[in-house]
Amino acid sequence: MQVTTTQKVIAAMMVEGTGRHMLDSGGAYGRHWEQNQKALGTDPDAAAELLFSGPGIHFHRTYGLTVSTPHFMDANLEYAPEVDKALHLFADQEEWARESWPAVLEAWIETTDYTVEYSENTYNGESLLSQVLQYWALAHPTEDHVVLVQLHNGADVRGGYTAPRAFHDLEEYALAGDGRITAVCSHDPASDALEGMPPQDSEPHSWDSDDAGYSFYPADSETQDFKWEEGELPSCPVDGSRVYFHAWPVDNTQEQWDHLYRDPSPALDALRTLAARLGDIDDALQAERDHRLALMQQARSDGESVDAIAKALNISRQRAHALLT
Fold first, then answer.
1. Side-chain half-sphere CA neighbours of 273 within 13 A
2. Could you tell me the pTM of the whole model?
3. How far apart are CA 58 and CA 53, in angstroms?
4. What is the set of domains in the chain, with CATH numbers?
5. What is the pLDDT of residues 153-181, one digit of tens each?
6. What is the C-alpha to C-alpha distance for residues 129 and 132, in angstroms, rounded to an integer?
7. What are the backbone dihedrals phi and psi of residue 263, each rounded to the nearest 5 degrees, phi first?
């Protein structure tokens, strides 16, 4: 496939390393940038080709719906190279080397005619996105609207954001649609937008959601509620036909939906069950570690020496000192 400049920039953000922190959970589960590099490699061009050949909407029988963040960005944004260059030339100055990106952005915006219309972190709302976005929407008296976007590539959402990149949004407030999705019965004429689906003459049945699929309301005159049971494929409550989803303007092809809706491998289901159990065990171990550290700190404040604490825990003095500092 022929990838665009916008897709290459998005792919570069996906594989951008954002560091590690001893207190994040990335050591157990992997940080987004580590997972992305493992799946896509580190070359943005090759990563873009792999990334955008896959589906934009993912469905899991247990965990529900997810919209691919890079597909969502690509559908709503266009790279703004001149603005991006100006921003990073400013940020590369020595005086900003130790400042956070939000501080740098605020200072850069003050040197321009842009004003911040609004800013958002998608973690703070009901979002379908596979990775969190943090962005600033900028207005200009004579130039096109600009959005400065950071992608969360770490583990803990409080840190691990990429360098911001500049884009033009194809439609104002488009990124605010990260929680919107439509369920459409497979016989619906509206589903002609899905590649490979033949037109039908029957009445449409569709439901919209503004809260990331937690609840749906009728998009037409239907009065029946739409929902599906965990572990089951979603079906139309009117006639039982298969249901597809649209996260406008992100869509899947019919072939991609068929692949997502196939019966899962028993081995894959067993792996998911095992992963969930290991996650529970890891949470319990982390709680024990936190409790141990609290007791160590209390013992230290009570006047106990590092050597005494190390002996009580049967660990080296160096290890005890590292934990306490």
1. 7
2. 0.74
3. 13
4. 5-177 (no CATH), 266-324 (1.10.10)
5. 887 788 889 999 999 998 888 899 999 99
6. 7
7. -65, 130
